[in-house]
Amino acid sequence: MASDPETISEGEHSSGHDAVEMPRPTIAPLILALGLATLAAGVVTSSAFIIVGAAMLVVGLSWWVFQLLHGRGHVFEPFVAPAQRPAIVTGRPSAVEQLRAGMPGYRFRLPTEVRPISSGVWGGLVGGLVMPIPAMLYGVFSGHGIWYPINLLAGIVLPGLGRLSIAELEQFSPMLLILSALIHAFLSLVLGLIYGVLLPTLPPIPRPIAWGGLLMPLLWSGVSYALLRRAEVALTRGVDWPWFIISQFLFGLVAAGVVMRSRTLHPVLAGVLGGVVGGLLMPLPALLWGRLSGHGIWYPANLLAAMVLPGLGVLPTVELEQFHAHWLGAAIAFHVVMSLGFGLVYGLLLPRLRPIPGPLAWGGLLFPLLWTGTSFGLMGVVNPILQRRVDWPWFIVSQFVFGVVASIVIVRSQLVYIAPAGHGPDRAADFVAGSSGDQP
Fold first, then answer.
1. Tens of pLDDT along 139-170?
2. DSSP string covering 81-121, please?
3. CA Rg, the chain, in Å?
4. Are 279 and 259 a contacting pair, CB within 8 Å?
5. Which terminal residue of the chain, N or C, has fewer Cβ atoms less than 10 Å from its own Cβ?
6. pTM listed for this prediction
7. Cα distances (Å, whole numbers) of residue 428 to 295, 418, 421
């Protein structure tokens, strides 16, 4: 058959028999399933997931129903020319080689090599031991002390902590310490096991996408946090940092994807194009957060303007929610400069950076977002007041530390080779010994 499907009329099909009727390919069921999963996740996390999931569900279901209409769900695949069709195979009585135990292909087991379950346990333990370091540093640098982040962790499951004052949360509490240690140990082991099972099975991530998703949120979020702290300390509390970092991830992935697909362009032009496209899409999460939070669409724009215009931090929140033409102009100018600047950095650096191993990229990029989203959603349900006291940039740094460290432990663990089925004990041992000699 031809490689590209071609729709022909019903009369041509019935008269010439030169095509075969086949179902039209569609991704509508996948969109519907993803919408249902996102909608269910939004019940326990955030209303944003409910809105996005509902939209995807409606699109997937409508698309699927549209494909089921008469004349919409099938295509006719034309046959190749008669000269290119395979010749008729004439049967001839003969015998075939019989597969026996020990021969290649006899009940072959896939995968042929796996990571032991203990690698996930060790990755979770080592990552869990290193992960609290950024939280402790935040407690020291912020003046709250080391017990403040520990007590906030206990607030994931204790609803009454939201009524405590900041001074009480800064004090040592044996009960909260034990509860936080149990929560931390449980989550570390569970996520470590998930890492150990999933990381070896995930596909590799292209180098620009891996670096774009990892480098950009760290650079842009770090620069923005430093500028906000220098402008007005109070402004850093007005930023919803999980949404802010989602915007950075969107910019990084889009800009990296544009640079990767613009291989024929000069790196500078590819970087500028990536910065323009990423900069156009990047404000969408911020505008969505402004609508869902009740601040309005001008609030995130005015926060962005506060990075370059002094004195905005002393204004009340009501004033920052209003439209101001010169503030909007300053925000747009600053956003354009940052987008083009980081786009140029992407265009020049991404082709020269070394590839990131697939498991390390997944562990350092995807799973910290899952952990942060889960913690943010749980605390938003159990302790909405306490949720606003968490310094989320430091919290996300802790998740990145866990993800990278756990991934390194799992990737560096020894592979366990699976012998084909049907071997005896001696043959299986010989297979394992021979395979281990081929291990790099």
1. 888 788 888 888 877 777 676 676 777 788 88
2. PGGGSPPPPPP-----PPP-TTSTTSS--SSSEE--HHHHH
3. 28
4. no
5. C
6. 0.54
7. 66, 9, 9
